[in-house]
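Session log. Operator J.P. requested a structure for one protein chain; no other inputs attached. Running the standard single-chain path with token output.
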Amino acid sequence: MTLFPPLAAASLRHALEKNEPLRIGALANGAIALALAEIARAKFASGVDIPALGVFVARDGLRQAELHGVMQALFPDIEIILMPAWDCQPYDRASPNAGVLARRMEALSRLVRTRGGSRPRLVIASVNAILQRLPPRDFVARQSFSAAPGQAIDLNSIAIWAEANGYSRVSTVRDVGEFAIRGGLVDLYPPGFADPVRLDFFGDTLESIRAFDAESQRSNANVKRLDLVPMSEFQLTSEAIRRFRQRYLAEFGGNLRGDTLYEHVSEGRRHVGMEHWLPLFHETLERFDAYLPGASLILDHQAEAAIEERFKQIEDYHEARKSALDEAAPGVPYRPLAPDALYLARHEWAVLAGSAIALSAFETAPGGGVSAINAGTRKGRDFAPERMDPKANLFDAAASHIREMQRAGRKAVIAAASEGSRDRLTHVLADHGVT
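Structure written below.
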């Protein structure tokens, strides 16, 4: 099934090949996934060999999760990479959740270490994720760990690697980002794994790698090889600590008494919220397009308004932190970095968005040097009025709508949440004359 008629499909292919801006209108909510699939396939058909063929920017995290689930369910021929944003506010004192950091590093590692294969590839990001600067590609590529049975590996090197990459040492591994060492056993719960893994050593020789259930702690499957990515977007190596200290002093001066962030990092200890000073741990940070060269940028309906709102939020939070610091507010001082150290500047985003494909639920027309096509989809029948009206019968309305479709020669497909729900709907609709 194709969403676009031949003429519109030709316009889409032209925009993708020339990297020119395009507006796609009349895309009802349920048709967004179809449009993304056709864009990814059209880009793939052009024969390019890049880490990702397209990056879709959802207007918020809920929309991102929704589209990710739909794309995975409906289009198994397309490789979907989810790129989440930090789940904390700009200039927060809290760190991003370890699971979120793990999924981000897994996505970046896939983009750095692999290229498009035998099927189209699409990255699904959010507005917050796309505006945030990322660790350098060589850092992601370099800070990995591989192991296979039969190899000689120093147990201490595993502990050093795990701690440097943000894993937490625990007595019993249950959550992503944890590790434990007990005698000749090393348990790790890496990002992207359904279950934690257990490395069984005899001396320095790795004898086996097995997955195990986090609740029962019982092994359940053999693993032939283990390839791990960092759990954090920086490492507390001696070089990173030295770089942080130098840049922190250059940025904020030498009067750092009571600054627990500076003290903890100087001691090689992790500090809650230290991710908000990420630029100080690296030589430089990179924009998302450094990981996605040649990919087409696809903007969700209302994404541009969400982008503007995000810029304002970043500026407001930064100004609040600056004001508190200037006024010497009580408590541990918070010394914020400039917004463009952590996030894209407005002018950078304007350049990147200049060649984007913008999706819209409304009819659109060419203008301002930008071509436009319309998908011609429309919103389906909404039964919200009947749900809200205590005098209305929802199933009468549904049955009436189905009969209208049948009289028009169209087929009705009813989707249920489960087999039990499907069976109940079958009986209820039968009582209303739909067999």
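Operator note: The chain has a mean pLDDT of 90.
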